[in-house]
Every structure is written in C-alpha cells, then in structure tokens.
Predict the structure.
Amino acid sequence: MQLTKEQRKFIVEKYFQAKSFHQVIQSFQEPFSERQSPTKMTIWKNGTRYRTEGTRLNLNKGRSGRRRTERSEENVRIVQGALTEYPKIWARKSGLDVTKSTFNRIITLDLKWHTYKMHVRNKLLDNDLPRRLNFSQSFLQRNVRFVDDIVVGDEAAFHLNGKENNHNVRTYAPKNQPPNFNFGVGISGEKVSVWMRLCGNGHVISPYFYNNNLNGVEYLDLINNRIVPRL
C-alpha cells in the first residue's frame, strides 16, 4: 500500500528536521496510528527524491513495476488463438514461445479466462433411462415414511491400473462461462472397492472391501447376510 501525500510530507519534513531515522519512525505513529511506520529505506528514498527532484510525490505512479514485455499484444493474440483452437492446452506444454508464468498471466489478466475442472460421470447405457423412470414412478407411489427406512450409501474405488486422476485435467474458458467438459467412463479395470452405508436412523454400517466391482451375487449376499441383520 503506497503512502499518501500527507504521509510523504510528514516523513520528509520530519527527516530534515530530526536527521534521524529512529525519530521519524517513532513520531510517524502519532498522526498515522492506523498505518505501519515506514522503514529506513522508505524514509531515505523519500528524502533523496525531495533533494534531487524537488518533490515528495511518487514519480513512479502509473508506470511502476516491471515493464510489460512478455504480455505483449502479439503474445496475447497467440495465446488466445491457441486456446480457441484447443482449450485443453497445458501451460507447461503449450508449444508457444512464452513462459509458463507469462501464459498464466495472459489468461488471468488479459483474457480474463478461468480454469475449469473436468468432471467424470458414469456412462449411461440405452436401457438405463427407462429403468430410472420406472424406479422414480414406483418410489413416488410409496408411503412417505418409507424414506425413513432407506439405507443410503456409496462405494469408492481405488484403481490399480494407473488411471489418470481427473484433478490433474483442466480446460480454459471465459470466466462464468463453463464449458461442457466431461467424458464417459466405463466401470472396469483392476481396483479395490470400499462399500459403506448410512441408515435412515443415523446408524453407520462399517465399510467392506472387495476386489474390483461388486457383482449382483456379491451385492445380494452383502444385503441379506450383512446389512439386513444389522438394521
């Protein structure tokens, strides 16, 4: 946070009066208690500027910081064209003649784009939609207290075949304009599945571990021999 004109004036006047960094630092807190006292370097720079330039004002205002060389208009056009053609491009492997940091600054500061995470969802088969519809209709016809007896749960799979983690996959798009970024994946591959359920009465059924996915026979055995006896 830059110093105000009044704060710069106080520092310069106090510095030339006292000729002491320590006294300037101590006295600064009296009129400007909400602001941290300036450092010795800040005091020295303001005093030197007044001697050489004859002003207390910040001469770097409006042109301070590093020169904008890498984020040129040409590089902005190159990055925007690359993202328009292939929005899944990586900053490290973009193939463009810009550094990773410049690539990210152009996207954030110039293009105002945002990274979106890829979502993984189960692949739906042709007969899944009518089955879901039939279940929903039968569910609506049941007694409302039926919900209290439902056992809700899910299973998590730990893949053993090096399946890519979707947390590492990103795509770029303008902010507040999320793209349709997803893909269907079949339920296959070597993995260990962890099954766990929560009953309507708040009771938690301990997790069970299985190799690969639970098939129909194992699921039926799990329900009849492990879940029902514990309800």
Remarks:
- Strands lie at 113-117, 119-122, 151-159, 170-174, 182-185, 191-199, 204-211.
- The CA atoms of residues 45 and 196 lie 65 Å apart.
